[in-house]
Amino acid sequence: MNQYEQLLNQDSNERMKKLEIFIPPGPRLGKMVIEGEGIRKSYGDRILVEDLTFSLPPGGIVGIVGPNGAGKTTLFRMITGQEEPDEGSIRIGETVKLCYVDQSRDNLDPNKTIYETISEGQETIWLGTQEVNARAYVAKFNFSGSAQQNKVSEISGGQRNRVHLAMMLKEGGNVLLLDEPTNDLDVNTLRALEEALESYGGCAVIISHDRWFLDRLATHIMAFEGDSKVVWFEGNYSDYEQDYKKRMGAAADQPHRIRYRHLTRD
């Protein structure tokens, strides 16, 4: 076991040297990651999802797609315990350590600098088993030189996104929940994030409208298709899109607003 851990650390060390953004490996995942069974969730008389059952694969990258308001972020909030399903259950594996970046990204202290926020006032940062210089780590997210001293209150939405990613990715989780991580990212940071996720040993679940991002990374797709239906598909976004067109026929090419099933009361 000690030899195995040494090999694991050596592999992590090499990947950290090669990658611009390195996601440290968290605890080893067991066979059971996150499972949902018979989930139903509604708001008012609108049913967002009904009878949703899924099992996240260890080491998989799951893309979550669908129109705004379909329930994608609500699913993340149920996984993290911020909300409860109306029916059904969500089980989290005993070995799972969650890291979650939500879409709002509004919990940053506006009076702190970018460097102070990410480094938490420390000169060095631990990435898994490796201790790295905090300023060098912050620079990997395209905050170099004087930019690290900018106050959070003064930065753009894309910069806030990079700050949140930097804070979350250093935590060493083995299951990442990323809600629209590519929003407002510059090309270099987007490429670095893609490469980091490709080399990541844990499970990642990513809400995104960026089909090219999901084409390159996703091993599975969870699609919120409307009418309270969620489809689980093995493959990337292009594979899912072909399957959707095959299932829906001519209707697949017709734009439509999202529809919800409605609760009926006796």
TrEMBL record:
<keyword id="KW-0067">ATP-binding</keyword>
<keyword id="KW-0810">Translation regulation</keyword>
<keyword id="KW-0677">Repeat</keyword>
<keyword id="KW-0547">Nucleotide-binding</keyword>
<dbReference type="GO" id="GO:0045900">
    <property type="term" value="P:negative regulation of translational elongation"/>
</dbReference>
<dbReference type="InterPro" id="IPR022374">
    <property type="entry name" value="EttA"/>
</dbReference>
<keyword id="KW-0699">rRNA-binding</keyword>
<dbReference type="GO" id="GO:0005524">
    <property type="term" value="F:ATP binding"/>
</dbReference>
<dbReference type="Pfam" id="PF00005">
    <property type="entry name" value="ABC_tran"/>
</dbReference>
<dbReference type="GO" id="GO:0019843">
    <property type="term" value="F:rRNA binding"/>
</dbReference>
<comment type="similarity">
    <text>Belongs to the ABC transporter superfamily. ABCF family. Translational throttle EttA subfamily.</text>
</comment>
<dbReference type="GO" id="GO:0000049">
    <property type="term" value="F:tRNA binding"/>
</dbReference>
<dbReference type="GO" id="GO:0016887">
    <property type="term" value="F:ATP hydrolysis activity"/>
</dbReference>
<dbReference type="InterPro" id="IPR003439">
    <property type="entry name" value="ABC_transporter-like_ATP-bd"/>
</dbReference>
<keyword id="KW-0694">RNA-binding</keyword>
<dbReference type="InterPro" id="IPR003593">
    <property type="entry name" value="AAA+_ATPase"/>
</dbReference>
<feature type="domain" description="ABC transporter">
    <location>
        <begin position="34"/>
        <end position="260"/>
    </location>
</feature>
<keyword id="KW-0820">tRNA-binding</keyword>
<protein>
    <submittedName>
        <fullName>ABC transporter</fullName>
    </submittedName>
</protein>
<dbReference type="InterPro" id="IPR027417">
    <property type="entry name" value="P-loop_NTPase"/>
</dbReference>
